[in-house]
Amino acid sequence: MLPLIDxxxxxxxQRLRLEWxxxxxxxxxxxxxxxxxxxxxxxxxxxxxxHLAAAHTAGAQGLISLGGAHSNHLHALAAAGERFGFATxxxxxxxxxxxxxxxxxxxxxxxxxxxxxxxxxxRHAPGFWEPWQAQYPALHQxxxxxxxxxxxxxxxxxxxxxxxxxxxxGWDDYDAWWLAAGTGxxxxxxxxxxxGQRKVFGALAVPDDHGVAPQVEMILRQAGAAERNLELIDxxxxxFAKVDEALLRFIQDxxxxxxxxxxxLYTGKALMALKEAVEQGRxxxxxxxxxxxxxxxxxxxxxxxxx
Length: 307
Ligand SMILES: Cc1ncc(COP(=O)(O)O)c(C=O)c1O
What we know:
By secondary structure, the chain is an alpha/beta fold. It has helices spanning about 20-25, 45-55, 70-85, 100-105, 115-120, 130-135, 150-155, 155-165, 185-195, 210-220, 245-260, 265-280, 300-305; strands at about 10-15, 25-30, 60-65, 85-90, 110-115, 140, 175-180, 200-205, 230-235, 290-295.
């Protein structure tokens, strides 16, 4: 049976120093989820914790989930399976290929099944899970990206982690959150944790038609949330995983100036969108912003190859 896992990593809140922030009089603290562990990195562990607790309660022996050939979610899940001793199965988008991520997945002991593109698109169809349930009756199903209400509940703890560390930055309070949003699950967790007190800005890594707003609303409704202090901002730069020169230059310059490693799909786009908001005066002088580094740095290896 899957063990009850009591690993509660603490992410450090660090000051981000960049010229454009200093010029605008905006202070940013980065919550370094990318640093919680060598392998189980980013928002993924927090999104998994409640799914793992549910799997334990159900008496499952492991977890089965979905993702692409560069998936940060499957990477964290497989690494957790190896670390804590439970079985993992990954259903992958597209046709069998070797990427640095899939190499790691197999090394961590995850059983992979390639669904093709049409097969993967059918993941929301009724009956999709039936054959997998029959093949792996002892495994607990986790939605793509570790999403849904359990995923969001696991991220609420980030609010406490930030509040406990404000004095390290010399802050007594902060004004808002800023983070990349893919499914909006992590953002929903912060909105729940804040209960309306501070605004949560989600920099969308996917285009508007990916339905992030309704997904966030569904999670908040399921949680019975009374407050919705949030704003979604288009940061996708033409589509998910679309990368352009200006973005790559921004990432390079930001890393060189601040030492903060970024990747182009989520954290790079999110920080670039914050810069635009600062330049437009939408984030004004004197504001204190918590930027969540949601990880994803393992994906840079595959992207470097592709580029
Ligand atoms: C590195 C990284 N940042 C941010 C996100 C977005 O998180 P969420 O799906 O909870 O919005 C993801 C995954 O989707 C991710 O892999």
